[in-house]
Structures are given as C-alpha cells and as structure tokens.
Amino acid sequence: MDIRILEKQKQHEIYDSAYRLLAEADNEFVPPLSSRSSSTQQNFSNTLQSDNITTYFEQLKNQRFAVVFEEGELISFVSFKENYTCSEISENELPNIYLSTLVVSPKARGKGVTTALYQKLFTEYEKVNIFTRTWSTNFAHIKILGKYGFEVIKVLKDDRGIGIDTVYFKKAKKI
Predict the structure, then answer these.
(1) How many C-beta atoms surround the C-beta of residue 24 within 10 A?
(2) % of the chain residues with pLDDT over 90
(3) Residue 125's domain is classified under what CATH number?
(4) Which of 38, 90, 102, 112 is most buried, most CB within 10 Å of its CB?
(5) Residue 6 reports pLDDT greater than 60
(6) What is the pLDDT of residue 52?
(7) Strands in the chain per DSSP E
(8) From CA 46, how far away is CA 37, in angstroms rounded?
C-alpha cells in the first residue's frame, strides 16, 4: 500500500479515480452523496434530487486528500478541511482538521486500508484536534473511531431521518 497526503497542487491527478470511487459508494452513505450539496452540509432535510455526485465532488475539490494506492490504482481516500469551524466545532478547537469523506473501494475493504489511512493522518496531524462525523447506523466506522480514541462530542437526533442521528467525533491532539 502506498499512502500519501497530497499537496493541493497535485490533487487534480486523482480526481477521475476519486470521482469513480465516490460514484461506486454513493448509495452506501446516508443520505446518498448524490443528494447532498457539500461534504459539510448541515441540514439533511433539504437534500437535492440528483442522480450524480458532481455537485458534491466539486465541493470536495476545495479540500485536501489523503490517498491509498495499491499497484498504482486509487483504492481509498479521505478528504479533509484544515482549521474548520461550524456550530458543532468552535474556534476554540483550532488548529484542527475535519475529515469529511472517507471512501474505500469494495475490493479493498477488510484489508486494513482505513486503519493505515488513519495512522498516516494521526502521524501527520498529531498536534491538532481531528474531527469527523457520521450517521448513527454506520457501525463499522463508529467502531474504528472508538478504537482510535475518538470521542462523541455531539449527537443531532434524527438529523438524517427517523432513527438516524448525525454523530460528531473528536480525537484530541497530542500535547
């Protein structure tokens, strides 16, 4: 596995492959990525009626990417924002990174790809707070977050539908 955090000016090289991974995983997200306007969308009750992820992906291009290649093929990425704030993440939490979208190719799942990707981020960004969010029924990802010391900081009840909460997590920086 080749794991890298891309420099912003090099990211365009993976856009086609990243778009294909997103399209492949679209409906695995709640709500689907194709119905969202951005990776930091705050209100999921007003989702788009769309059959492609172009709007969502265009917003991702403004973020940084950590990527995993296997035999030259992009098999996973996580997009992230540096020094992100919103109603759940205050300015007091700066500096930080906010992990917005994590995708692993179906053929690469169960092989430690997410673990390796997180380890790279934890090494590179050990001196900043790391935030992310997911939906309450994304049990596999929640298990991984717990394994790496992420703590729940906010739960938005029924934010993504009846019985599906949005859950915000934080991994505190090393001092």
Answers:
(1) 13
(2) 81
(3) 3.40.630.30
(4) 102
(5) yes
(6) 72
(7) 2-5, 64-70, 73-82, 96-104, 129-135, 151-156, 166-171
(8) 9
